[in-house]
Amino acid sequence: MQDTRHRVLDAIADGPVSGPALADRLDVSRAAVWKHIEALREAGFSIDGGGDGYELVSTPDFGGEAVAFGLDAPFDVAYHDTIQSTNDRARELAAEGREDVVVLADEQTGGRGRLDREWAAPAGGIWLSILLRPTVPPADAPAFTLAAAVATTRAAREAGVDAAIKWPNDVLVPDGDGDQRKLTGILTEMEGEADRVAWIVVGIGINANVDAADLVADATSLREEGGDVNRRVFTQRVLEEFHDLRSELDAVVPAWRDLADTLGRRVRVDTPGGEIVGEAVDVEFPGTLVVETDDGTVRVNAGDCEHLRPA
To answer: Which of 126, 218, 229, 303 could in theory staple to 271 by disulfide, Cβ–Cβ 3.0 to 4.6 A?
Structure first.
């Protein structure tokens, strides 16, 4: 959101303010104030322009201006009604030298998950990618993936949904029959050198106000689990929680453990070196899964994890 437009919203959120008073406060012309007010109305903000001045009546449920307004995290928000892939756009912005940008969309037409799996991303969801330039070595990059899973799970629980994390980054909801359905998928991409990260893009796809019929099999949505949510508020909570965690990476793994559904379970993990089966007993920084197998302790840095039913 433009800084001046943000300041206009802050000013009129607390009560009516006249056009001349706004112009003086913001050091802009009255014509500029009017243009900002009209742009905000076009973005979905309801603004009363009565005799006492301008007053913010309500904010839209979604959109770039809406998410940026009141967001307690230092991200610019680049919004699209429809986009092929928020991750693709974030990578383009990375090539332009940008950072701390959130690419946000109502709908993705080319969404994908890990291992290029299909990921449905219909209108009504929350599809976003966060572009970062952290000063960390590439070995620490997995911690940002875990941070995204924690942030999303915390927001889901605040919304009344009993979500938990499957290693490393799937946010799941129990279905009542001993199985789980996927609520959120996370895909992290990185570019860097041996000793430093150039940029990281953390893509988060949240099935928000979406019908289960519009999703892939074994997926669920916030709508299906507890009813529609205010997507503006939900997105803000995810970004704020993520920002807090990325600012203190040492806190990520303990927070992940608190929300994990994988620990204590028997798992099968497909890795480039073969299949690992055993009990998941811990996660170590920056996201290594510790599995007790019949042949001893194995540490897994990357793989496709499946929860197994008790024998």
So the answer is: 303
